[in-house]
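Table 4 source record.
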Amino acid sequence: VQLQASGGGLVQPGGSLHLSCAASGFDFEEYDMSWVRQAPGKEPEWVAGIVSGGENTYYLDAVKGRFTIARDNAKDMVYLQMDSLKPEDTAVYYCNTEGNWGKGTQVTVSS
């Protein structure tokens, strides 16, 4: 299993970022996918999930209405659109499936 997130960066409060995660090494279309984040000095926090077919999505209350998870099973990709970003969204973001983590991407929200 290989998972590599990208698309992070530095953004001002209220801004947006679009994260992508490229998956390989498993039958992507058969697995639910999640985004998880970890802020410095804190435990990992589940942020959003999407079922294998993409028909159902789930969100941490703190990001509902601001973040949108999506997937493209033809491309083995999962995405996280993040809008109205807040400083407390600052963390390294990882995509995750079945306990497998890959390379994360740093998101920093600061003025």
